[in-house]
Integral membrane protein (Streptomyces chiangmaiensis), 118 residues
Amino acid sequence: MAAIHIVDQGGITATRDPYYIGVAYHVLEIAAVITAVLLLAGLPRPGWLLAAGVAAGPLLGYILTRGPGLPGAGDDIGNWTEPLGLVSLAVEGLLLLLSVPLFVRSLRTEPSKARSTE
């Protein structure tokens, strides 16, 4: 997801207009990397929770920018079939479908015996 949004914004150092959307892109990209680090480090609860947020945020943003529009960002209204946007929707949708049940499952698992003996 970070890569898709970096491409969409025009590179790592670029910031989309309006400025608040550009900042949201950078926050999303950083959160996506943190999510990957948490999951790779074996921290499923915060990792899957953050993954759900990383997926849900851009989905909401896509709906708002294509539907009613956002302040200063009306150029995408009605642009539901933009190819990179559709790729982003697919990735975000799959991540959301994966992360929510895995987060719930992480809440149900018992703590490891190593932690319970401390």
